[in-house]
Predict the structure.
Amino acid sequence: MTTMGKGLGNRPRRIAVVGAGISGITAAHVLQREHDVTLFEAGTSLGGHAHAVAVDDGRGGSVDVDTAFLIYNGRHYPRFCELLVDLGVNHDTRPAEMSASFADYDTNLHYALARGLDSLFVQRKNLVRPGFYRMFAELLLFRRRAHADMLAARIPESLTLGAYLEGYSRLFRDDLVVPLATAIWSLPGRLVLDYPARAILQFFMNHQLLHGESGDAWRTFDGASGVYVRAFRDRFRGRIRLSTPVVRIERHPRAKDPVTIVTKGERHPFDAVVLATHADDSLALLQSPSPDETRVLSAFRYNTSRVLLHGDPAVLHRDRRMWASWNAVTRYGRTTVSYHLNRVQRLPVTAPDYFLTLDDDGGRRHRTIAKFDYRHPIFDAKAVASQTRVEDLQGKDATFFCGSYTGHGFHEDGVVSALAVTRHFGLHTIRARAADRREEPPRSSVTFEHGAA
């Protein structure tokens, strides 16, 4: 490991962090303990996928609803939880309801999980439908097989989820596993089936998603995910450059200033740069990427999902007993996933119904509020194989890389990847040790600078 420390005559290093999503926020928050940090963000606000919209709460006021990062797992997001504690917002959360519904109009199969027996057997013929019971029998078999295969390490890295599911019924694959994974990764079913089986099974096992033991661990934020973003902003001592897209990054290893960040009309000298952007964006920013950087970062591809925030209940089953936190509806071979935000985020009972639907253009939707495009990593075999090679790039030409693409694509992975970078600077934990902790600065010490969009 290349530990840079303070160096340069024992003075703090000038570090640029590019990208203000969870990875950039974590890296900047930790590095500021010892260094002079500038955070560059192309957009007009911090947070990346931690983005919320104010909507009518039904009682004359407003309430924030999230549009990308909705929930986290209190058991299996230890580093993210540590960040919340350090930011002082770990108590600004509440349990999230993790129920699910599946409505396949092509096969006429409708049911819901974690919504009671009446919703599980919303179609009374499910009580006497052999295929329905077979699907859950296959779930038990799948759990046992997956645990055994993972413990024995006998799943090849190249084996896809689609190949692993061969031999199971179409109902089990298309009406349980694929919609579940689609909702989690915000990817179309065809891409989910190309996901390496070993990686997705590890995630399912870590979160007990296939055997119903994680429901009480899922949490959401009081006031939406902007709670932790605002807490970071208030505690950050460095400079935040919003609306300042980085044009390119020049590196001169033997120069006094090894890194130059070029923005529109400006050049900014630094001792090191942390790229907390999507892998392909990071590669594109480097003026002269090395062969290793090109080989590793180009392995990661992304899918862009259109997310529609709206109030049209037509996206869900017509029977409200089937309304769950997340809902998969299949028609004409196409599955659409919608989150019922009132349930997920436990909105006030007075609030109208709000829905977040993936890959819906909203052309015929009533009460359309907003549309957003979010990019998510595609974890095919090539990408998964390249994840372990990111560490080999760290510190070369004073450049470091972090992002959720190094894990499963979630907030916890973003935090873990940022800590993998800060360790190179001798900072191993989110929370400073008592002997190292500096006196907290006044809340107004952060400097905001807005560049040309």
Q: What stands out?
A: Residues 434-453 have pLDDT under 50 and may be disordered. The chain has two domains: 14-52+223-299+385-450, 93-221+302-378. Residues 130-151 form the longest helix (22 residues).
